[in-house]
Amino acid sequence: MKEAIRIGILAPAFDLPGADGKNHTLAGILEGRRAVVILFWCNHCPYVKSYEERIKKMAQRYASKGVAFALINSDNETAHPEDTLENMKTRATAAGYPFPYLRDKGGAAAQAYEAGTIPEAFVVDATGAVRYAGKIDDCWQSERRVKRHPLRDALEDVLHDRDVAVKTTPPVGCAIKREA
């Protein structure tokens, strides 16, 4: 298993173009928020497709609690043409994403976060510190079969000013294919 990003460090900054036509920074997304969930994502991965509705519901549920979500696509668009910014725009609109969907074409953000899997989640608290890194839950195939919710649990710990009980979990999904 790869080494996870060090918990407690300041989250790596980014400034990335979004499917909404604007550039987004971590500082801008975090501003006025209690936490941000960053998810490494793409258009083609079956794991992402399985989680898409769950993440939208989670983002809507936590918005009123001061939590923002942002998706970052670092996958190689040469290997996966469906992951171009134009195709991301189409996907974000069709899926009704209530959060920024960002293009990390060179993979610098994925490298800075030490992300290697799609989807892979990071919880960043209001101070900008990484408090959780890993999987969304324990059953990507079916929401009904989920027994453990490490992402949700980490968010709850952050929102209740507690130490995050489970700081890292091994992400489950497709490997990020970086540009050569």
Write up this protein.
This protein has one domain (15-175): 3-Layer(aba) Sandwich (Glutaredoxin). It has helices at residues 26-30, 46-63, 85-95, 108-113, 150-159, and strands spanning 15-17, 23-25, 35-41, 67-73, 101-103, 117-118, 120-125, 130-134, 174-175. The mean pLDDT is 93. The chain is globular, with a radius of gyration of 15 Å. The protein is of the alpha/beta class and 180 residues long.
Structurally, the number of domains stands at 1
In spatial order, strands of the major sheet run 5-4-3-7-8
Provide the structure class: alpha/beta
Question: What is the element string, with H for helices and E for strands?
Answer: EEHEHEHEHEEEHE
Fraction of residues in β-strands: 15-25%
Uncertain regions spanning at least 5 consecutive residues: none
> Mind telling me the CATH class?
Alpha Beta
**Total beta strand runs:** 9
Q: How large is the radius of gyration?
A: 15 Å
- CATH fold group: Glutaredoxin
Which bin fits the share of residues in helices? 25-40%
Average pLDDT reading:
93
- Architecture, CATH level 2? 3-Layer(aba) Sandwich
